[in-house]
Amino acid sequence: MNKKRLSSLLLIIGLIISTILIFDLCFPSLNLGKIKLKYKIIVWSMTIVLFIYYIKNYLKPQLAPSVLNSEKDNSRNNNKPDTSFKDVAGLEEIKEELQETIDFINNPSKYKKMGAKIPKGILFYGPPGTGKTLLAKAVAGETCSTFLYASGSEFVEKYVGVGAKRVRTLFEKAKKDAPTIIFIDEIDAIGTKRNMESNNEKDQTLNQLLVEMDGFNTDDTVVIIGATNRLDLLDEALLRPGRFDRHIYIGNPNMKAREQILKVHTKNKPLDRTVNIKNIAKKTHGLSGADLANIANEAAIIAVRKNKNKISIEDFDAAIERVLAGLEVKNPTVLLKEKKTVSIHEAGHAVVSKILETDMVQKISIVPRGHALGYVLKFPDEDRYLLTKQELMNKISALLAGRAAEQLIFNEITTGAKDDLDKATHIAKEMVCSYGMSPLGQMSLDEYHIKYSYDIIRDEIKKILDTGYKNALEILKENKNVLNHIANILLEKETINFDELEEIFNLYKKPMDYAT
């Protein structure tokens, strides 16, 4: 029994006995007169002492959160990580960019001779899971600096002054332990643009951060690194030179980088001879470093589940499906009619994607995963950074091909195209509002213009989607035999891989070249 519970129990017992003795003293009816007065006084005194002790230690009124009373040091906030650039794979250009900062921290004298000043802040921005935190740790490791980690949400409190106090405490500690790398993750939580409707406490916290970044002593080697995936939300005062001097975009890795990342995450795993890291990198286009680490870990778990000694390529394929498509539903209760509809739907996606050459179709399946009753795994055969208007139209046609197939075969449509419609509408909206690929002209529209020109924009989006749907329907009509063939095999085997799809298409002659 802990100290608090014991003292509470003794206090309760003392209060009960004291109450009984007082009641007997006033109304003698319990025959307790034999107890001497001095013993009664001892019991009352002990009860009063216990009551005062309890009030003093456990019922302290707190008008502000405990953080105002004491700021506890967290072990994660004061360490020198052993992470280095050797642990960071696939970000060679960014590592090269950071070498100057590292050299400045390690050899400040040669830069000071030239009158150069160390960059006060570096801002990493880009999609989540791309290695921003790892890079910050690596910079601290390369320079043997103290690494102080803080999340933007840690500075946000409803009590006025708490966030600003935490910022001051963080920077005081950084100056004391210099050289120091301060890393603020999700900095958009405190660094959002200020306006008349913004939170007063948030503004105070941001103002304190701006003051601290301006007030660095030149003798203190302190670098602040921020990370966000919403650069557009940050206040202009935070982004100006002198605060965050360098803005570095960290995007999803290309094929070569994915290969290097996969090698890092599989170096301690027993791989079968069938595993080709380069082929896995090709299949994982558009995935982040965190996704790749998850795939490597899932492959190992699947291999253990199958009581295998080594991880095979089949385990990696299953892991990719698990990460991209979701958890496989065991013993699904799908009606035969629905199964036929799903097979036609997925076959439609595969036929149009194959003929228009939008992406390489790796696998077609009608095995339910997550919320989907079926799926088509497809990846581009190479990394692409620019897409033409026609290529975007082809992507829309491929997305709407599932619904078009349902319309063609069953003369009816279902709710199964919800996700396809979301993706197709997003592409069409970007074509109209961001890329200037519509009759509205060469313009990019922001949220303000979209709000007040909604009807015009909606009509243009609808025209693009109708054109894509019509194109998909025409392709499927011309290739109805291939569509039915694929759907029948799916009903029989539930899955079709890349090689099997190639064999099916080789049985039929393509009537027209729609890719041009």
From TrEMBL:
Record-annotated AAA+ ATPase domain positions: 118-254
Entries under CDD domains matching the protein: RecA-like_FtsH (cd19501)
EC number(s) per entry: 3.4.24.-
One GO term (biological process): protein catabolic process
Binding site for ATP: 126-133
Membrane-traversing stretches: 6-27, 39-55
EC top class named in words: hydrolase
A GO CC annotation given for this chain: plasma membrane
Family: In the C-terminal section; belongs to the peptidase M41 family. Belongs to the AAA ATPase family.
Protein name listed in UniProt: ATP-dependent zinc metalloprotease FtsH
Gene transcribed to yield this protein: ftsH
